Sequence to fold (653 residues):
Amino acid sequence: MEKIVVYDIETMKEMFLVGAYIPDTEEYVEFEVSNYANQMDAFIRFTDTYKEYYWVGYNNLRFDSQVVQWIIEHYEEWHELSGLEIAAKIAQKASDVIDDANYDVFPEYREFQLSMRQIDLFKVHHFDNKNRRVSLKRLEFEMDLENIEEMPIHHNKTDLTPEEVALTKGYCKNDVSATYQFWLVTIGETSHPLYKGSNQIELRMDIEKEFGIPCLNYSDSKIGDEMIKKFYCQEKGIKYGDLPKKGKFRKSISVADCVAHYVQFETPELQQFLKGIKKQKLTQQDEFLIDLEFKGQTYTFAKGGLHSVNKPKVFEADDEHYIIDWDVSSYYPAIIINNERFPAHLGKEFLIGYRKMFEKRLELKPLAKKDKRIKGIVNALKLSVNSVYGKSSDMQSWIYDRQLTMFTTITGELSLMMLIEKYELAGINVISANTDGVTIRIKKELVDEMHKINEWWSNVTGYELERADYQKIIFSTVNDYLAIKTNGEIKKKGDFLTDFELHKNKSARIVPIALEQYFVNDIPVADTIMAHSSIYDFCLRQKSSKDFHYEGVNKSTGEKTIYNKLIRYYVSKKGEKLLKVKNEDSDSTAPDVSQVEAGEWVCTVCNFLPKDYPLDNINYDYYIERCNRMIEKIQFEGRKRKIEVNPNQLSLF
Fold:
């Protein structure tokens, strides 16, 4: 791996500050320009010394690198200025950079124009997408870091004291430390099971070497898009610059054009259903959303795929029944390729290039386990193949063609419905359907019939089915379940997840941990919760908008504590009532005051939380109750399972 500098800057009206950590030497350095010091020359020498390193930051391509590059190009004009005057100039430039970003103006310096090579972890993880946007403070919570620190001094503060300068330096150092911890996650040097051993930087370097795509700061989605462009240009015989800038816009789409030729049903109700939807037309504003009742089960047809409407329930295999999950291999890519579909404005060359990527991945996949470089290529091809469906529905994408999106979705839903119909007519109970597969509870005597149905379905559709056998599956909803495979592996989704991607909320992680132990190993939730040793898994987070802030109120004294935007807390035996309070200048119609945790629960805010923090103040009853509410919600074959409750806890039942 190339050498790196991890850095962050603070651009205050009266101080410019750079903090940098060099992992090679384990050295932290800082450079200050203020009323008290002018270390600008030292900082410029530092940039020259480390110009061959990669400079790693968080949102640094859009902000930090822009400011630093501007400084490098202008600092020689400032030799006659005081530290305060220089800081003010830099603060104004920083404000302009932020304004440009807020209005989606392209940054002044493109990546190739920057003096130092940048790695922007914000972009690599696609946190610049509005649906995945995560602040560094939130990351500090999700990574279980000891210190979640907000900027202690307002950027426009004047007459900074030495104490305020020191506070700001501490804050900057903490940000650099958090960025470095996120860097370790990014290169797979972490215990987090979703990131361990997966070096996202090495992957991007392998892709650049193999395909010539400079993707170091690309998200997975953008890598996929650039790969598709490369293959398409090769097939079309055009240059990159000649790619279409926009997609195919349609005033309306006929659903009949979104149904594969092979789709047909046996039962009158499904025949009528198919006939009815084929008459529909979808305008640009119309969503495809239909509920269908079939054999006692409700199925929802929607843009995101087919879903059964599952009530809370537990299914178990026994001496007479198997529980089998059938997933369709690479479902959406297979639908596009098998049915020879492509964005109308791009022509068949798109499909040819797409098929080559798909087949190349399958060819190299067996070799990926032994060769890291090939593994990187396979992963890149996977990103490309899987991204087409999403891009076809993105109005900003060159691939956009909503008819391709809807053909893939509707054909996929109807194809699964063909399989479901065959199962049900054969007496095989479908207990769940979810986008690319179905789960059945089947009498063992019907297994041969199941295989005949699967073979028929694969021959008709051209898709391949992959099997997983479950001993037990616990549903809260179709998107929230815990499944125990016959080989002991656990599959979890939604409410039952215990490991989270870092853009998701891991609050009160102890709850799904305890639920898993309860359902898998029959361990009472109280036993798991009270024996758990990590304080971080009891913590929750809240973040206020511009209209609100958080306050803690001591129930005995009435004393108030005003907290920052993001708070980490746990429910405690002794603590404060935690309140969300509307700001005086807010236009929000929400209540002026609301409790963060309803009822009589009190909380302890702990934005600084050492790893050896004592556990004796945790109110275990709160977490036990949350588990028990989930257990109570889930039906056990028409009966309710007796729940073991701590006799000392407050009960909701």
The radius of gyration is 28 Å.
